[in-house]
Amino acid sequence: MVKVFVSDFIPEDILDPLRSLGEVDMWQGPGQVPRSTLLANLGTARGWLSMLTDTIDAELLDAAPGIRVISQMSVGVDNIDVDACRSRGVLLGHTPDVLTETVADTAFALIAAAVRRLPEGERMVRTGAWGPWDPWHFLGGDLYHATLGIVGMGRIGQAITRRARGFEMTVNYTSPTRKDVPDATMLDLADLLSDSDVVVVAAPLNSETRGMIGAAELNLMRADAYLVNIARGPLVDTVALIEALARRSIGGAALDVTDPEPLPPDHPLLGFPNCLVVPHIGSASVRARRAMARLAVDNLVAALRGEPMPAPLHD
Ligand code: NAP
């Protein structure tokens, strides 16, 4: 009988096709599955439904010689040593598309919250610091007619662009390859940074993009511009961002993802009122997460049956 390991809770109605295929061993907490549990449980498994919090490296793969397919419930596989999987013949699946619109919604929520200074205003109300209305108090920027710079014009970048049209924004992007996206202009990164009212990072994390928004890049941004990171924390150099916020060389930041993650409550980033941080909830809608879980199960079932996965990870 085929044995499958699942790294976190998946609702039973979604798991059903997997249960009918073999024996399912599902981690149900508390917390994330410990590495020792993975090392102990993957030994006899043929399939693995993994999460982005699993570090999938050569050591783990060597402890799981029977694994034929890893189906991850995420987009962004920076936690996986893809070469180590390929060299062992392990098939890889992921969950693109089904979360794209939800992540773009979250990106826009972060953009709006940062530019209109919503968290600062809310804190002021709650702490009793709300004084009489003042025409020159608490001014922020505008979304309408703003210039948006998107770093990484892929699925999510393009979904953000579609939303930006409603605000009649000017959209620029930087990407290794030119994209056929109406009303969006490809720029090099330096021009994009210096032109933008808001910069949104939506590129994958890999050895080339790690730290791509560092001190030099932040210095190119305008003093009233905002940085939004919806992709992965390590794309932005955290120390450089703290320095930029401290020097007020940018207007602020809004981060769905951080480095480190989770961010400890005493972390310097949390000391800046103009730095909004939310806990990696980009795709956290009921609909998106159920769709991701279903696609991850479908990938696993297909691969274990020897059929093509609906969403294989391509090189
Ligand atoms: P995607 O369709 O693969 O798009 C990524 C885009 O980034 C591609 O178009 C790629 O360009 C571009 N890119 C690669 N290297 C770049 C660089 N050095 N500079 C600028 N652009 C670069 O992926 P997606 O579905 O939009 O997702 C993007 C990332 O978002 C994922 O990798 C993941 O890490 C993150 N994400 C976060 C959440 C969340 O919850 N916050 C949820 C989903 C995804 P080419 O096409 O030319 O290669």
Provide a concise account of the structure shown.
With 315 residues, this protein is of the alpha/beta class.
Structure explained in plain terms:
By secondary structure, the protein is of the alpha/beta class. Helix content is 33%, strand content 16%. The strands form 2 sheets. Strands 8-7-6-9-10-11-12 form a 7-stranded parallel sheet, sandwiched between helices. It has a 5-stranded parallel sheet with strand order 2-1-3-4-5. α1 (12-19) packs parallel to α11 (286-304) and α5 crosses α7. The two termini are 31 Å apart. The mean pLDDT is 97. Bound molecules: NADP nicotinamide-adenine-dinucleotide phosphate. NADP nicotinamide-adenine-dinucleotide phosphate is lined by residues 75-76, 96, 99-100, 103, 151-157, 174-177, 202-205, 208-209, 212, 230-232, 256-257, 280, 282-283.
Task: Name its key features.
315 residues; five-stranded parallel β-sheet; binds NADP nicotinamide-adenine-dinucleotide phosphate; single chain; alpha/beta
Oligomeric nature of the chains: single chain
Small ligands present: NADP nicotinamide-adenine-dinucleotide phosphate
Strand order of the largest sheet: 8-7-6-9-10-11-12
**Average pLDDT over all residues:** 97
From N to C, what is the helix and strand string?
EHEHEHEHEHHEHEEHEHEHEEH
C-alpha Rg, in Å?
A: 21 Å
Beta-strand segment tally:
12
Structural class: alpha/beta
Helix percent reads: 25-40%
What is the 3D shape? elongated
Portion in beta strands: 15-25%
**Terminal-residue CA separation:** 31 Å
Uncertain segments of ≥5 residues (pLDDT<50)? none
Main sheet makeup? 7 strands, parallel
Number of helices: 11
